[in-house]
Amino acid sequence: MPGRLENKVAIVTGGGSGFGQGIATKFVEEGAKVIIADLAQDNGSRVAKELGCEFHLSNVTKRDDWEALLKKVLDTHGRLDIVINNAGGTYMNKVWLLGPLHFAESTDWYTQPTMQVTDEDFDLVVNLNMRSIYLSASVIVPYMQKRGEGGVFVQIASTAGIRPRPGLTWYNASKAAASCATKTMAVEYATDKIRFNAVCPVVGSTAM
User: Fold this and answer.
1) Residue 136 lies in a domain
2) Among 11, 54, 178, 179, whose Cα sits 20 to 30 Å from the Cα of 129?
3) Phi, psi of 124, deg, nearest 5
4) CATH value at residue 127
5) pLDDT digits over 27-38, tens only?
6) Residue 146, Cβ neighbours under 10 Å: how many?
7) Are 46 and 26 in contact (CB under 8 A)?
8) Domain presence at residue 84
9) Inside any domain, residue 125
C-alpha cells in the first residue's frame, strides 16, 4: 500500500534532532521525499543518511538560505508540497534560577525573572520562532501560488503561546505569534489552496 505522502516533497527544518527527526522519520515512512534543513551539519547529515533522504545546511533565519533551499529542492525534485517549520529555540526558564525558597516566599517571582532576559535571549526566540516562519512564507508562498497546485505549511508552535508560563515571557510571545500568523495566513491563502496549520506540543524529550 502506498503511504499517505507518496509523491509529496517536504522540507523539515530542524530535522536533525528532536521533533524534527521524528517528523522526518514519519514522513519518509509515509512515502514523502524529505529534505532535512538544519544548521547542525553533523546531526542533519547523520539523520538524512539513516532515513535515506537529503540534507541541506540551512540557517532558517536567513532569506538567502531559504532561497537556496527552495532552489535545491526544485533542482532535485522539481516540486515542493510541504514545509514543516519545526526549527525553534528558547532560553532557560528564569524562574527556576531563583531557587525554590525564593519562589515560595517572594511575591515578585512572576515579574523579576523576565527582567533577567538578555537582548541575545530575545533575539534568539524572535529570529528562530518568528522570523523563520516569515521567511519561509515570503520565499515559498509565491512559488506555490505560481505553480497553482496548493501546498501545506505546518508550524511547530507550543502550548506556551496558548497558556503562557512565568519566566518564559518572550518565548511564550514568539510562539503565540507563530500561532497567530498561522491563522492569518490560513485565511489569506485559502483561495490559493495553501493550507497553514500549527501544532502546539506541551513538552518533549529533546535537547531544547
Assistant:
1) yes
2) 54
3) -60, -50
4) 3.40.50.720
5) 999 999 999 999
6) 9
7) no
8) yes
9) yes
Quick check: is 193 in a domain?
yes
Question: What's the pLDDT tens digit per position in 66-110?
Answer: 999 999 999 999 999 999 999 998 887 755 544 444 444 444 544
Quick one: which H or E segment has residue 54? strand 54-57
Which long-range contacts does 142-149 make (Cβ < 8 Å, 24+ apart)?
A: 143/70, 143/74, 143/80, 144/80, 144/192, 144/194, 145/189, 145/192, 145/194, 147/79, 149/81, 149/193
Confidence (pTM): 0.88
Q: Can you tell me which residue has the cell 532557560?
A: 92
Give the type of residue at 135.
L
Average pLDDT over residues 53-63: 97
Total structural domains within the chain: 1
Owning domain of residue 104: 9-199
Cell of 101: 525558597
Q: Which tens digit of pLDDT belongs to each residue from 186-207?
A: 999 999 999 999 998 876 665 5
Residues 19 and 206 sit within 8 Å (Cβ to Cβ): yes
**Residues labelled as active-site residues:** 171
